[in-house]
Amino acid sequence: MKLALVALAAVSYVVAQGTVPPWGTCGGIDWTGGTVCSEGQYCHEWNPWDST
């Protein structure tokens, strides 16, 4: 449950800020959140559903 709340907070932060924080989700099938990484970071596609 605690992990779910942390994940929800991270997603909320990304949507509000427009950039993805380090280790935040940045893409995947049906992803509608941020796709611009923080300075010095990059997005890695782990599989079609999850990129961080």
Your description of this structure?
The protein contains one helix and four strands, in the order H-E-E-E-E. The protein has 52 residues and is α+β, with helices and mostly antiparallel strands. The chain has one domain (2-51). The strands form two sheets. It has a two-stranded parallel ribbon. A two-stranded antiparallel sheet has the order 3-4. A hairpin with a 2-residue loop joins strand 3 and strand 4 (50-51). It is globular. The mean pLDDT is 79.
First CA to last CA: what distance? 21 Å
Radius of gyration: 10 Å
Q: Strand arrangement, largest sheet?
A: 1-2
Assembly context of the chains: single chain
Report the count of strand segments. Answer: 4
Summarize the amount of helix as a percent range.
25-40%
Q: What is the chain-wise order of helices and strands?
A: HEEEE
| Biggest sheet layout | 2 strands, parallel
Number of helices: 1
Overall domain count? 1
Morphology: globular
- Mean pLDDT across every amino acid position: 79
Structural class by helix and strand composition: alpha+beta
Short description:
One of its GO terms (cellular component) is extracellular region. This protein has 52 residues and is α+β, with helices and mostly antiparallel strands. Helices cover 31% and strands 17% of the residues.
